[in-house]
């Protein structure tokens, strides 16, 4: 167990390992995405009330789910970076932040596009939408803080502190926005997804969620590899790898 | 560490640090007055922008007052650790044999007394200007009193993270506005509940809980952030 963690902390080992991982994960991701899209967009039945417009759920929900999970990945990496000072954890945080921000933005955009035909408005100050917007701000804050520091180790530790405080705050934000919404919005608008979703629509959704997790993993790994190549551009093991490849 | 001087007790160390920062604030009254003048001026802008209809202003007053208080705290927190960082006393504090979380908390406490506390005290004046009903005024003071504790501590975290960053002002607002959202929601809801004759106590209790929780957790985070800024 510990030897694996120690190995993970070593850039050359991680570089080789992630290279092999991406080689397997990338085809799997493409297959899952194609399968999920085909199943969800063509095979699954149209919704009784929303017709075909509901199909955007196959992008909207996976993006939102993975965006939320991504923040916790970042927080975990931040804790590891603060406690054990492992460089790879810094690189993980740095790689996750922009991916998470983009996924949150996709969830918000697809939500707006879905909202127009369903609710008749591009934007509604609904509790969940507002929490996602705040999550986007939290991600952007981490990205901006990383860019602001010259010293990359200090940047990672600053972001780790910010992310951990944000993690404590996320449930509070979610709860407060929830109460705020229930007080001020008329109950006329509700997520139609509240009703139990039929399995013919659920299974393609689960496939798409899995596909988005894979997209997230592949993007983060590629980001990390790019960062490793840049920070270790002078070191021997990288030159050897380039020579061997 | 020279051993000929005995260590101060933590309480005395806290008190001295508090007085030091309070004296520095008293020496430059404009630092205390500026947020109040800012608050006053922005409050003036709202009736000009929204129209002078008293009923409409009264319904919007809780939100306006709280948003402007948040902005005022954002404005002052940018400077919280700046002068100590520039003259090197922050480095001395970090090297001192006292927990940095404690000495940072002393600075934040002095800062809060000069900004958030005074803002809460004078807020009824601005509430009356916006036509906030009488029932709302005590709750406005209480909610600002508790809420500015959180706002100041979160602002201190932002200030500690950005003190060594060039052009940190805009970055600071990006970092701390999302974290301030619950305080804003609880504060405005408490005042609004008081105005409509509801039950503001539960919201004030939530804010008290947030303030106490922030007092426990955030000084540690602020100290960690200050060490990062000093190292970079």
Which key features would you list for this structure?
heterodimer; A: 245 residues; Four Helix Bundle (Hemerythrin (Met), subunit A); B: mainly alpha; 10 helices; 0% strand
Report on this model:
The complex is a heterodimer of chains A (245) and B (232). Chain A has 245 residues and is an all-alpha fold. Chain A is built from 8 helices and no strands. The radius of gyration of chain A is 20 Å and the shape is globular. Chain A starts with a helix and ends with a helix. Chain B is mainly alpha-helical and 232 residues long. Chain B has one domain. In chain B, helix 6 packs across helix 10 and helix 7 (116-129) packs across helix 8. The longest helix of chain B is centred in the C-terminal third of the chain and has 32 residues, at 200-231. The chains are: A mainly alpha (245), B mainly alpha (232). Chain A binds chain B through residues 82, 134, 137-138, 140-141, 144-145, 148-151, 153-155, 157-158, 161-162, 164-166, 168-169, 172-173, 175-177, 179-180, 183, and chain B through 157, 161-162, 164-166, 168, 171, 174-175, 177-179, 181-182, 185-186, 189, 210, 217-218, 221, 224-225, 228-229, 231-232.
Number of domains of chain A: 1
Class computed from helices, strands and strand pairing of chain A: mainly alpha
Number of strands of chain B: 0
For the record, what CATH class of chain A applies? Mainly Alpha
The major beta sheet of chain B can be summarized as: none
What proportion of the residues of chain A is helical, as a percent range? over 70%
What is the annotated CATH architecture of chain A?
Up-down Bundle
Count of individual domains of chain B? 1
Beta-strand fraction estimate of chain A: under 5%
Order of helices and strands of chain A: HHHHHHHH
SS strand fraction of chain B: under 5%
Q: Give me the secondary-structure category of chain B.
A: mainly alpha
Identify the most extensive interface between protein chains. A-B, 32 and 28 residues
State the separation between the terminal residues of chain A, measured CA to CA.
Answer: 30 Å
What sort of overall outline of chain B do the alpha carbons produce when their principal axes are compared?
elongated
